[in-house]
Predict the 3D structure of the following.
Amino acid sequence: MSALGNASSRTLPALTNYRNILFDTMVHAQDMAIPLGRTISVTPRPRRRVRTAP
């Protein structure tokens, strides 16, 4: 499959799920930006607190 075919795919890569795909995307964006001398601002947001059953 060509690179364009992979880029247009809407399926998740192996070993990736909907919980970690955003983190994976941010990390790889930084991997590309740093050698180009660019910065990508990633502002951390606090996670929501989830109430657990007693």
In short: The two ends are 51 Å apart (CA to CA). The mean pLDDT is 78. The chain has two helices and no strands.
